[in-house]
Amino acid sequence: MAQHSVQAVIITIGDELLIGQTVDTNSAFIARELNKIGIWVRQRVAISDDREQILNTLTESAVQARVVIITGGLGPTADDITKPTLCEYFKSDLRLDESVLQNVTKIFGRFGREVTERNRQQAMVPEACTVLPNKRGTAPGMSFEKDGVFYFSLPGVPSEMEGLMNDSVIPMLEEGLELPVIVHKTTVTMGQGESFIADKLQDFEAELPPHIKLAYLPNYGIVKLRLTAKGTDKAKLESEVAAGQQTIKNLLSEYVVADDDVTLAEVVGGLLKKHSRFMCTAESCTGGYIAHLFTQRSGASHTFKGSVVCYSNEIKENPLCVQHSTLVTYGAVSEETVREMAANARVLLKSDYSVVTSGIMGPDGGTQEKPVGTVWIGVANGDEVRTQKFMVHRGQRQKNIEQTAILAMNMLRKFILEKEEG
To answer: Among 59, 280, 342, 347, who pairs with 378 as Cys (CB 3.0-4.6 Å)?
Structure first.
């Protein structure tokens, strides 16, 4: 990646990362934020709470990059050795920072707790650092500069790290470095696999200029297509990328779901908001997962009424009012059952649209007639109930649930478009 003039290394510290006890989401967030301002992440490294390993990794990173970002190891316990190791690396002593101590005292005071000596250790920082105020916790961020390399040490708690990245790290890098312009634009498609999409875009991709790249990002029936342009003239790059995205949309018109890097839940929520409509869900096999995807968005209350997680037949009958005879005759995983679920959920939850699921997620429970992965999905409005059968067997229960949710949201998306926009 020699064409990227500013490169970074991300170092995550903690034994819990190496044994799989904690999933590293910090590196992904940091990489995204750096990329937005034109900094390319050359390497992501996870290391243990070990002094020698930290020192060696810092030394190696400084040779490769102008920006080194460290997360983790800043707590008040004995195994958090990042600060003393940073003192050794930067040939510095620890000092008490009064602003950090005031922040620690203020946070503990909110909960009526006394600041202990161990808590006071949070306010001890290397003399060589610039303290970055942590508005979301007690461990401060720290920045250093040595031989033209910018170093940042951030807490491992994701919310605290994200606040420090946005409030301090990104502004400092934008001010301190001469950065290139990077423009991204993402088109979301659904209904065809990566190879089919690549065949359709073969000529388009071959004609792209060297400074514009096309990336394929497939996942569960969705293929995201990201155009990335790098240069110095932002307006020119934005114009080129916009024209490229329009060509992609023309070539793949029947498969395009969104022209921005958004989720299906956001797409459906946008449609509902546009037409002042509300939706609800009744979920058997997905167990409330679709409702979760909708309600994790800010503003979901403007488009989402509620959900019935009707995992058992008893709940399908009451309060969802699926007839007992339907369940006995056709079974829970059937067109007849989801048809009643969709119609009744919409009325029960006073919504304009409903989307419902019933299926066999596995790994057990399948039969010869209805193997694992069999799913019925239904959608409804005041005029029509529509159902469709899918097979989603992916080998893992969670993957089956996630794919079912995607299929259900896309079915609802198309239904809303047809009913509201023709």
So the answer is: 342
Pairwise CA distance, residues 366 & 83, whole Å: 54
Nearest to 205 by CA among 227, 231, 176: 227
Q: 194 with 178: CB under 8 angstroms?
A: no
CA distance 354 to 382: 10
The two tokens of residue 168 are 């301090």
The pairing of strands 7-13 and 40-47 is: parallel
- Residue 130: strand pairing partners: 143
Cβ distance 26 to 81 under 8 Å?
Answer: no
How many Cα atoms are found within 13 Å in the side-chain-facing hemisphere of 122?
26
CA 336 – CA 323 distance, rounded (Å): 10
Q: Judge contact between 358 and 285, C-beta under 8 A.
A: yes
Q: What are phi and psi of 137, to 5 degrees?
A: -170, -170
Reference 140, options 99, 181, 179, 89; nearest CA is 99
Determine the Cα–Cα distance for residues 96 and 71; give it in Å rounded to an integer: 21
Read off the pLDDT of residues 292-328 as tens digits, 9 standing for 90 and up.
Answer: 999 998 999 999 999 999 999 999 999 999 999 999 9
Give me the sign of the Cα torsion angle 328, 333, 339, 344.
positive
Pairwise CA distance, residues 216 & 201, whole Å: 11
* 178-to-70, 172, 223, 232 alpha-carbon distances in Å: 22, 11, 34, 11
Report the interhelical angle of 397-421 vs 264-274 (nearest 10°): 20
Provide the whole-model pTM. Answer: 0.81
Q: At what angle do helices 51-64 and 82-89 cross, to 10 degrees?
A: 50
